[in-house]
Known about the structure:
Strand content: 5-15%
Distance between the termini: 15 Å
Amino acid sequence: MTPGLTVDIVVEGDLDEAVLTELLRSIGIGVLRRFGKRGKDDLRKKVRRYNHAARHSKWVVLVDLNNDAECPPPFVASWLPDRNPNLQFRVAVRAIESWLLADTNAMARFLRVPVEKIPLQPEKEPKPKQTLINVARRSRSKRIRQDLVPPPGRTARQGPGYISRLIEFTVVHWDPQRASKHAPSLERALNSLSQWKTGNDA
């Protein structure tokens, strides 16, 4: 095993940062520096710069697939056709919420809903974020509903505490290994990143 392995990470926002940090921590990889957090468009503009920087150290980029492509390979090829081996470009299908929903029992307990309300194949949800919010609407907890669900009559797409609540879930309750059983893109990310710990390139 590679002792004390650390990597630089690039993400779209605060929630993605928390998820990727926990994912890496679960396989014994630390985070050295953090970049991005200015949205997907800004990340795409700078991804070649990060790829260039990966000549000297290991980097991990995490991006949501959304509806930009049917599956990750063509999406990755369109963003970064000449990827440096020191940079792993991981794609959450179709959004980071899929990876969180994939830890079904933990999410059900956190949202205080019956586990049957959590989709067993969250990566097949066309809009995982909306799915999560819709599940939260049925929460037995008024505080969960207030934090995650947008107020009625407002233009907001999420509740005022959406990000902070899901970061709390990620840091305190989420288990990437458990979630990977229901999220193939997360499983691929874990397997590929684990190769760095065993001394093999992805």
